[in-house]
Design brief:
This protein is an alpha+beta fold and 556 residues long. Among the domains are: 1-69 and 235-305 and 532-556, 3-Layer(aba) Sandwich (D-Maltodextrin-Binding Protein, domain 2), CATH 3.40.190; 315-526, Dipeptide-binding Protein, domain 3 (Roll), CATH 3.10.105.10. The chain is 28% helix and 20% strand. The chain contains 16 helices and 22 strands. Helix 9 runs antiparallel to helix 11 and helix 14 (467-474) packs antiparallel against helix 15. It starts with a helix and ends with a strand. The relative contact order is 0.17.
Length: 556
């Protein structure tokens, strides 16, 4: 996910952020503020706004953090881990070809609008996505559907991939059978994604009456996805309000939930886009937890008695090169020069939390398929200058986009990291034109469209398979990178079509070696993001996938 994750379409000062929080808390928490046991609202601060209340239209972690509490997929990951477990399906299996997937569904499950969950509901969702038209076919809107199951019943977008979804059938009320055209490494992991979480059929009928529209690179999402009231899942919480002015989404416990009920009645996700603002809000007691703790704040908070667990490493931060935006980037020597010019070790040392590591390829070393034989590009300013001269690009000028009003698990302080990179590139003789953009929707839209010669982004894995990293970017042409090289594409897709797990891992290693020889962008680092909770909180289990279930949280 682009926790992001991290590829969907879509500054306030620390003092102002804290002030806004303090203003809204009294009415939310009620009379129990002085007694932890009486508190009925848990307030958690994220670093960015969600883009949609319909997770099928999103690809960013801030959206999924919210929707995960309200929507459930056929499969899920074990709490705090990466192992696939049953979600709305108690059991699942595939035929020997890997093209027919059978799901034995849970019984007695209700949607938030009272509709019954069954096999017909599963098929209504998958057929709904498969039959999307118009702007819904934009990769910026339906990124995950296209990544997992390909294109649509009728591809209208020339860049939409070949459809791999074939059909969904309700074998009986509690058995759904999903058939795909070809086996894929994206399955069964893809069945666990929030973007493929199951919605009420009644809600889907309402969705189908509304369109997404596009004007240039800007996407206008359908109304139902931008305000509470229509979306309906099966999760332990239901979404009741999205106050965009106060940058917060409110959820209420769903008392008819099929599983263990949420321990806290109300859940509020609030956006505080600065690290200082989030820390100060927690210290002041205005929030009960927050994500993406600044590395320098970890010890400060722990010494004050706050809980600051660290997730395991499961992400990758990179600099993307858009070859279509600037033709100079088509030259291998220029891409190599950029790689040698940036001091990645310094970024890890000065900007990342303890445990951060310099990346050598486009997946962390915790993923099977990581190779020790990739081509390396050590920091060397003189080498960068020599390569630029050899390419006839001395005096090269590049626009470099970076995001504002956000912090990501792989990118703790975007502007600080950008400034370090800018300084490094300028020392190598490259003129850098900064282009700051608001994270959602401007930055995500621009990077998705390949509108920035250079940009910073990253990815937190959705599930534990190497293809979920390298296949995300390099299995086919992608506007973000703007290159067409069948050697790269074929190397990446070879692993996705390999049924033997051992051979698949070896194929991923080879693909990593091919990718780093071509060098479509620069992998920078992987880091273990920290998350903080109040002294009076029994926190949920923290997840390397950043898939925390807040129904587990309670007050001491």
């Amino acid at each position: 996910m682009r926790i992001f994750k991290s590829r969907s379409v879509r500054a306030i000062t620390a003092a102002l952020a804290v002030g806004m929080i303090a203003t809204g808390c009294a009415s939310e928490r009620g009379k129990g503020d002085d007694k932890a046991g009486d508190k009925d609202t848990f307030v958690f601060a994220g670093a960015g706004d969600p883009t949609s209340l319909d997770p099928a239209l999103a690809s960013d972690g801030e959206t999924f953090r919210v929707t995960r509490q309200a929507f459930e997929a056929l499969l899920e990951h074990e709490s705090g881990g990466t192992k696939l477990v049953g979600g709305l399906a108690e059991k699942w299996s595939s035929d020997p070809t890997g093209t027919v997937w059978t799901f034995n569904l849970r019984k007695g499950v209700k949607f938030h609008d009272g509709e019954a969950f069954n096999a017909a509901a599963v098929c209504a969702n998958y057929d709904h996505w498969f039959n999307w038209k118009g702007t819904y076919q934009s990769s910026a809107v339906s990124y995950y559907w296209q990544s997992i199951l390909g294109g649509f019943a009728k591809n209208e977008d020339k860049e939409a991939p070949k459809p791999n979804y074939k059909s969904c059938a309700a074998k009986d009320e509690n058995t759904a059978v999903i058939t795909v055209n070809e086996p894929s490494a994206t399955l069964p992991g893809g069945f666990s994604l929030q973007a493929l979480a199951i919605h009420s059929p009644k809600a889907i009928k309402a969705y189908e009456k509304q369109e997404a529209t596009a004007k240039g690179e800007a996407i206008t999402y359908p109304k139902y996805s931008q305000e509470a009231g229509t979306v309906a899942g099966t999760g332990p919480y239901r979404i009741t309000k999205w106050n965009k002015g106060n940058k917060e989404v409110t959820l209420e416990r769903f008392d008819d939930y099929w599983g263990e009920k949420a321990k806290i009645k109300n859940l509020v996700f609030r956006t505080i886009d600065t690290e200082d603002g989030r820390r100060q809000a927690l210290q002041a007691g205005d929030i009960d937890g927050y994500d993406l703790v600044a590395p320098a704040d970890v010890k400060t908070l722990e010494n004050a008695g706050f809980q600051v667990p660290t997730r395991d490493v499961f992400n990758l931060f990179y600099v993307g090169f858009s070859q279509e935006k600037n033709p100079a980037l088509k030259k291998p020597e220029v891409r190599q020069a950029l790689a040698h010019a940036i001091d990645r070790d310094n970024i890890v040392k000065t900007q990342l939390p303890e445990g951060g590591k310099t990346a050598t390829q486009f997946m962390p070393e915790t993923i099977a398929g990581y190779s020790d034989k990739v081509k390396k590009y050590p920091f060397d300013t003189n080498k960068a200058k020599q390569l630029l001269a050899a390419a006839g690009e001395s005096g090269l000028s590049l626009e470099f986009c970076y995001p504002t009003e956000v912090t990501r698990p792989y990118m703790p302080a975007p502007q600080d990291i950008f400034e370090l990179m800018k300084s490094d590139l300028e020392k190598a003789g490259i003129k850098v034109t900064p282009k700051p953009l608001k994270w959602a929707p401007d930055y995500l839209d621009a990077t998705e469209a390949g509108a920035c010669a250079l940009h910073m982004l990253g990815w937190t894995g959705d599930y534990n398979d190497g293809y979920n990293f390298i296949g995300t970017w390099f299995a086919k042409y992608d506007k973000q990178w703007g290159f067409k090289d069948t050697t790269v594409f074929d190397a990446v897709t070879a692993g996705s079509k390999e049924a033997d797990p051992v051979k698949r891992v070896e194929a991923y290693k080879k693909a990593n070696e091919v990718i780093m020889e071509y060098l479509p962008g620069l992998p920078v680092s992987s880091s273990p993001p920290a998350i903080a909770f109040g002294k009076n909180v029994n926190p949920p289990k923290v997840s390397p996938l950043t898939q925390e279930y807040f129904s587990e949280a309670s007050f001491k």
